[in-house]
Structure formats: structure tokens, C-alpha cells
Write the C-alpha cells for this entry.
Amino acid sequence: MRVLVSGARGYIGSALCARLVSAGHDVHRLVRREQGRGDALLDLPGRRIDTTGLGPDGLAGIDVVFHLAGEPITPWRWSAAKRERIRSSRVVTTDVVARALAALGPAAPTLVAMSAVGYYGDRGDDVLDETSPPGTGTLAQVCQAWEAATAPARDAGVRVVNVRTGVVLGPGGGALGLQLPLFRLGLGGPLGSGRQWTSWISLEDEVGALLHAAETPSLSGPCNATAPEPVRNSEYTAALARALHRPALLRAPEPLLTLVAGRETTAEFLCASQRVRPAALEQSGYDFVHPDLAGAFAAATGGGAAGPAV
């Protein structure tokens, strides 16, 4: 395949590009600056994509566009400026990409667009799949607008898959990049009550799910990229501590988290409960490399086989 990837330098994007290259695919990047040979340029002020780097066929010569770009969501206070960067880096860029593909009609590349389980908001013990309604709050609203921005492509007959990603677990970054230093010092523990549900996925399966979405014609619309068994936060922290042979006794009370990270970040990111099932992936035949949390942590921390190379 010839593929175009935005967010190619990010944690997930770099792993995806490495897998694509190792499989022999022709990979091009969609960048906002520092355009290299073979790159397409996302011109946000002009609301267009400069495709001259893709050759004479432009986007028409691409088979799949993986649109992964977005401002990182970190567990610190969200200023008004940060909140706007989170929104615009997803919604505005997706709108530009979707409209560029819509101009090509049904012959356009498949669009695999990132989204997140934040779409569902804080839902307690409810079991959520792709048919569940959206939640409320800043992140839920961002995710809804993010997915809605793909509508021009979908309305033009382009196959669009909105990949709602959970907490990605892998070596060298992602959620564990923040958590491992504390847990290795024995300073980890549950967040808040610890009863909130965490929907997670290994980096190997995140990349696998993105490729599966691209290569499975029957998949379109929302697709949850989460492992089959979400866990409570207390189970998550206990499993990570076991993988590192450390205790996990230092619970972080919600008032303390609110003081450090802010009320909105704590409620919607650190302590939100999302019990998500990957119904679309399972029904379309995706085979998880790491269906259980222990295996995912072992691969991410060097304590077990890492599955397919990424």
C-alpha cells in the first residue's frame, strides 16, 4: 500500500510507521512544518493539503490515510489555551483532511481517523460499545466534534473508520511514560477511589487495530481500540506493580489530584470511568496480541514477549 500518516512522529504514529515500513509499504508523512521529500504539507491557514510531495497523482495515488495528529493530553491543569489546542489540533486538521478526500469522491483513500474513548465521558459501571451514546464534558465534546469533522469524507462516499482509542500501554512513552518512574520507586497506587474503569490497549494491538481498520472493508464508523477486558483502576495499578515487583500502596486521593492537576483534568482524565468493549474489532475478526493486562505490562516493561515488532 501507499499510505499517508499524520502524527507520524508521535508515540502511536512512529510505531505504526515502523510496522508499515517493515511490512514493505510505501509510507508518506502529512506534516505541518519541516516538510521532507515525499511529505505532504497540511496548510491550516489555507485550509488545504499541498500534495506535490506525493507525486503527480497526489492523494489519488494513496490507498489509506491514517490521521493521528493531535495535541497531547497530559494529566495537568488545562488552561484555556491548552483546551483550545486540544480541540483545534483535532477538529480543524480533521476537517481539512476530510474535505481534501471528499473532493476525490468514492475513489479517495480510506480514512482511518483517530478518536478516543473520552467520547463516552464518565459512565460509571455502564458497559459501553460503539452503539452507546456520547457522554458529557470537555473531552466528550472534543471527541464528538473530532468524529463529526470526518463527515465531509463520509458523505462523499469515502470509507471512514473512527478509532476510539483507550489508554495505550507500551515501552518508551504513552501512559506508562508518566507512570513507570513513580511505580519503579514504589510510589504508585490507585487514583481516587480506584473503582473507576480503565479501558486500555497494548501498543502492539493499537497498531494492529489501525492496520486492521485499514484492511477490513466491512469496518466503517466508530471502532473501539481497547482490549477485551477493561479493569478497575485498583486492578490496573496492582497489575503494574506486580510487573515491576514493587508495592502499590500509595493511593492518591481525589482532592489531592484536584489540587495538583485541576478539577477538570481529574474528573475527565485521571478519575473518569469508562468500561469499553471492542465490539467492532471482535466482530470483524481481530485477534488481540495482548488480551490480558498482565501480558501487556510484561511486554511494555521488558518482562515478556512483545508480540509483533512495531
